[in-house]
Amino acid sequence: MVVALATFTTAITAEEVGERWGTADRERDYYRIVELPIPQTQVMEVCAFTTLPDGRIAAGTRHGEVYFITGAEGEKPQPTYELFASGMDEIFGLVWKDDALYVTQTCELTRVKDTNKDGKADRYECVSDAWGFGTYHEYAFGSTFDPKGNLYVALGLSNSYNSYQLLRGWCMKITPEGKSIPIASGMRSPGGIGFNETGALCYIESQGPWNSSCSIKFIKEGGFMGHPASFNWYDYAPNMGKAPLQPESGTRIITERKRVPQLDPYAVIFPYIRMGRSITAFTLNHTKGKFGPFENQMFMGDYTLSLIMRATTEQVNGVWQGACYPFREGLSTGIMNVQFTSAGQLLTGGTNRGWPVRGLKPYALERLDWTGRMPFEIERITITPDGFRIAFTKAVDAATGNNPTSYTVKTFTHEYHAGYGGPELDETIPKATKVTLAADGMSATIVMDAMTKGHCHAFDLGALRSRDGEELLHRNAYYTVNEVPNK
In what order do the strands lie in the sheet with 214-218? Predict the structure, then answer.
């Protein structure tokens, strides 16, 4: 794929790409998939979106083009595509500011302008090319601007195991003055970078060496994201000090955090296959209810399994962690990026790029629309000092909601090692010893007999029923525990 493209050199079995959640037939009652027709003469492998001040959508492609899309929001859309810019390479970041489009492409951050106002770009200015570029694996993913006007770029390694070009595997901060500052090492193959609902900077990391599953990781200045291949560039980042200790292969993140203080743990682990194979860029739901009950949550795609997931995060004892949830199967191609429209619809763009994906089309633009029906879902899981609080989108009935056996949890972790990927290890099966269902049925607080730091806690709440007798649309959720709050 375009996040971990080098990983798909062997065939994926039918079992791995087949129906995983088995919920697509029910999902369409709540979120329908709408195709945005693409002219037969155009190839639209969209990997980046942004919304323009006039409401049009800018779409960047892997071929280095930028199209302005009009009419993407209609009930039966017949959009038009205007070519605005071309000649760039693998666009994985778009943001509009001060009458210019800032384009993150593989080799640089470029400011693109239409100075004569004829609808076509006529000026391309390099804002930063402070990193090297030599192979197809060396992608660059750009954020939006933070409140101070900084933009952040996440740089993929030269391949899964090595950093051959300058600052590959690093996160760069590009200031309003154009200064390029390395702020974190240890990235492997990012899939997107941006901010959560509180403005904290995070990125999507792909499964591979030193990453046994895909994840969300949060970036702090001076941090180490886990893959030591980029340590060779610390001499070019004097603001970062000395390189961290080399991590020990074959350990666990929870133990290596004690040895390597710069190491940032996974904030949200996406269990491999069950929650995608190749997670891609995310967007925040700020639709104010137009997209249903998931305001302020992160939505992201998966390339290989052609689906959409969501995630929530929280900070505990100064460390980020959170949960991921299934959302929508059945997209037509490998999903590379997502973006909400002003009407509250979720645009999806992508490509199969020749790698195996579940969707059958080589590229597609599609849209998810909320039908207005309220699904019975796990809205959000947060941690408490002795368990979890689980919020729902509809009221849970008292019989199932007050029964501790309705809340099944298993935990696991992964080996933190230099090998590629890795199985789930060290399983535990804690029990819910007490549950308190809120009077309105919209949340439940459960007390666990144990919680394990460094483990993903896999919830199966299939026994729950809503007050009108519904099963959960998606019965599973996965919360990563890095820290437990103090009582």
Answer: 192-195, 201-205, 214-218, 268-270
Q: What is the pLDDT of residue 10?
A: 36
Residue recorded with tokens 């429209």:
341
Q: Give the helix, strand, coil percentages of the chain, each rounded to 5.
A: 10, 40, 50
Q: How far apart are the C-alpha atoms of 66 and 46, rounded to whole Å?
A: 9
Task: State how far the Cα of 53 lies from the Cα of 64, in Å rounded to an integer.
Answer: 22
> What is the tens place of the pLDDT at every residue in 122-132?
999 999 999 99
Q: Which CATH number fits domain 378-481: 3.40.50.2020, 2.60.40.1220, 3.20.20.450, 3.40.50.2000?
A: 2.60.40.1220
The answer to whether the CB of 335 falls within 8 A of the CB of 309 is no
Angstrom CA distances, 206 to 129, 144, 174, 236, stand at 24, 21, 23, 25
Give per-residue pLDDT as tens, 58-107: 999 999 999 999 999 999 999 999 999 999 999 999 999 999 999 999 99
Distance separating alpha carbons of residues 134 and 107, to the nearest angstrom: 9
Query: May I ask the CATH class of domain 5-370?
Result: mainly beta
SS3 string, 142-206, reads EEEECCCCCEEEEECCCCCCCCCCCCCCCEEEECCCCCEEEEEECCCCCCEEEECCCCCEEEEEC
Name which of 89, 84, 184 is nearest 129 in CA terms. Answer: 89
Do 5-370 and 378-481 show the same overall fold? no
Please give the mean pLDDT across all residues of the chain: 95
Residue 7 has pLDDT above 90, yes or no: no
Locate 167 and state its tokens: 């600052």
pTM of this structure: 0.95
Contact 237, 172 (CB under 8 A): no
Cα–Cα distance, 339 to 56 (Å, whole number) = 12
Answer yes or no: are the C-beta atoms of 479 and 381 closer than 8 Å: yes
Instruction: Write down the domain spans for the chain.
Output: 5-370, 378-481
What pLDDT score was predicted for residue 485? 97
* Neighbour order of strands in the sheet with 180-185: 140-145, 151-155, 171-174, 180-185, 223-224
Give per-residue burial for 262-300: e unless 16+ CB within 10 Å, then b: bbbbbbbbbbbebbbbbbbbbbbbebeebbbbbeebbbb
Q: How many C-alpha atoms does 400 have within 13 Å on its Cβ side?
A: 19
Overall average pLDDT of the 145-151 stretch: 98
How many residues belong to the chain? 487
- Residue 231: Cβ-neighbour burial (10 angstroms; 0-12, 13-18, 19+): middle
Q: What is the DSSP pairing of strand 123-128 with strand 109-113?
A: antiparallel
pLDDT band at 136 (very low <50, low <70, confident <90, very high): confident
| Separation of alpha carbons 196 and 244, rounded Å | 27
